[in-house]
């Protein structure tokens, strides 16, 4: 058995106020846990930068919302907060970052329906290093392919048992889509609906930007920058990073828009990004082999968004 | 932590020719196993009756097919067979059945992509008692509701990354559909496609029967019995029990048919069943509150199918 490198585990346990630290080199889950046998549970991934967990409130809110969709009762947010703090502290003590710029910790919050026959969810925090590949893709950008998600944009409203707005542990399709994209020579995928809409990435939210120069009516030109994401009621996961970035962008004078978006909107954009809590803002260089905008425009707009995003707590 | 009642675990392990028996009262899975964190894996459930595992070849074939859809390399069938035998023997030694009629063991075969960062699947067998509720429903029958699966019948062919023909560990939607059905006062569900076809149950295959009396052309009447199931290329899981039963039914003079089926076909049938490897043949009394056939006809046809099914190896 290969040991996971540099992982800290903290289980939520009523007997331990700040969470129970567990040895990550040893088995810690029952083989009959319904997370392992049915993918029956929910999760969140967030990033701690220089010891500070980002967007904790948004992630805890979404975890609660996902749990509600699955009829799971989970511990209160303060319990999660204390366990998150424990995990980050333990991780940074055990594996100090060589420099502040590299001081990133991936923090996963996991909930399963618990052991078969019991009625108590299994809840834990996993802290691990941020993947080098993700950090690289923030710089180099990524190529993506469009993949059919099989659902229409009304399915989530019509059929709540499809759990479309919940971040469940049943991620086999998301992982299969990524493997399929890699086989096509791409780095990632963007899902589309059967009614032709742009949805989301398997582990990220889609953003696009348009930059226009308009006449201000008084004889001089003004630059209008617009940031657009697919509408939330199309059966996608509400993006915590997209939401936080939109707030910052609005304050900085960007116009904001919500879909519906079709693939042609991606090809027409000045820049497209996949945004998520760990890889953060990944500029999309090509969609299905077609270049998006120009390298200079992508670079400039990505730098602007990164600056806005750096201010997020 | 609640201990799972009467469970035997056998891990597939190259160091143990017949599988490695593990203590089911102790954690045996790494918390970073991608089965637990991503539902990334495949499984099978089969029944051992009086110590004899049923349809082992069909289940091992389907496990291989599911694993292939997920790009998982799994051990050879003989390795699985030996571990299955170990699990059944250990279980029956530890928990002897009070009578031959109760000598049923549920045998699950589980494969995950393994621990994060490793490249070796985690494979194990879980042996446990057959649920009393399932055995009861074979007798009493079940009420079901029709639930939209969100996909059309072409989605599986068009988008292999949706894994529609694979039995993956990502079963959160199947479990949510069952919870939804229970909240409606039903026992189970039948999924329908967005193009209006009958698909399958969350954990079972749909069967229906028509019984007709026809003139044989020579002045006397002949009874024609027809057994029908949805066509396999509609993105459903190929049912090992349906397949085995069809072979027996054909030999006994039944006519066989494959869909497309629409909900009206269920309402028009003389009997409908959900068939699966553990609960076996469960007659459907009502679909969306409408009675299927008559109690006498359901009972008679169910008895006939049970007799055919008893002969399955």
UniProtKB/TrEMBL annotation, chains A, B:
NCBIfam families (alphabetical): PRK07849.1-1 (NF005886), PRK07849.1-2 (NF005887)
Keyword Ribonucleoprotein: no
Family under the similarity heading: Belongs to the class-IV pyridoxal-phosphate-dependent aminotransferase family.
GO CC terms: cytosol
Pfam families: Aminotran_4
InterPro entries found in the cross-reference section: Aminotrans_IV (IPR001544), Aminotransferase-like (IPR036038), BCAT-like_C (IPR043132), BCAT-like_N (IPR043131), Class-IV_PLP-Dep_Aminotrnsfr (IPR050571)
Family annotation (SUPFAM superfamilies): D-aminoacid aminotransferase-like PLP-dependent enzymes
Keyword Transcription: no
Organism: Arthrobacter bambusae
Coiled coil feature spans: none
GO biological process, one term: carboxylic acid biosynthetic process
MF term (GO), any: 4-amino-4-deoxychorismate lyase activity
Documented EC number(s): 4.1.3.38
Keywords from the UniProt entry: Lyase
Main EC class the enzyme belongs to: lyase
Family matches, as Gene3D superfamilies: 3.30.470.10, D-amino Acid Aminotransferase, subunit A, domain 2 (3.20.10.10)
Identification of the protein by name: 4-amino-4-deoxychorismate lyase
């Amino acid at each position: 058995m290969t040991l996971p490198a540099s992982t800290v585990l903290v289980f939520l346990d009523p007997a331990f106020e700040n969470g129970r630290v567990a040895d990550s080199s040893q088995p810690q889950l029952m083989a009959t846990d319904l997370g392992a046998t049915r993918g029956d549970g929910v999760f969140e991934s967030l990033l701690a930068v220089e010891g500070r967990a980002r967007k904790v409130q948004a992630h805890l809110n979404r975890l609660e919302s996902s749990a509600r969709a699955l009829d799971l009762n989970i511990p209160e947010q303060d319990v999660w907060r204390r366990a998150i703090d424990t995990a980050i502290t333990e991780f940074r003590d055990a594996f100090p970052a060589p420099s502040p710029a590299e001081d990133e910790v991936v923090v996963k919050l996991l909930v399963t329906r618990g052991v078969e026959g019991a009625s108590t969810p299994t809840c834990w925090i996993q802290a691990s290093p941020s993947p080098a590949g993700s950090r690289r893709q923030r710089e180099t950008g990524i190529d993506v392919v469009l993949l059919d998600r099989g659902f229409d944009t009304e399915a989530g409203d019509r059929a709540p048992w499809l759990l479309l707005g919940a971040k469940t542990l049943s991620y086999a399709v998301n992982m299969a889509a990524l493997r399929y994209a890699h086989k096509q020579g791409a780095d990632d995928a963007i899902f589309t609906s059967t009614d032709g809409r742009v949805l989301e990435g398997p582990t990220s939210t889609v953003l696009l930007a348009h930059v226009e120069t308009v006449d201000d009516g008084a004889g001089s030109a003004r630059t209008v920058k617009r940031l657009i994401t697919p509408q939330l009621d199309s059966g996608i996961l509400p993006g915590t990073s997209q939401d936080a970035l939109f707030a910052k962008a609005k304050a900085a004078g960007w116009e904001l828009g919500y879909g519906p978006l079709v693939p042609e909107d991606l090809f027409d954009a000045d820049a497209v990004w996949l945004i998520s809590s760990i890889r953060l803002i990944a500029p999309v260089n090509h969609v299905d082999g077609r270049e998006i905008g120009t390298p200079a425009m992508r670079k400039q707009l990505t730098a602007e968004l990164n600056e806005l995003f750096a201010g997020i707590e």
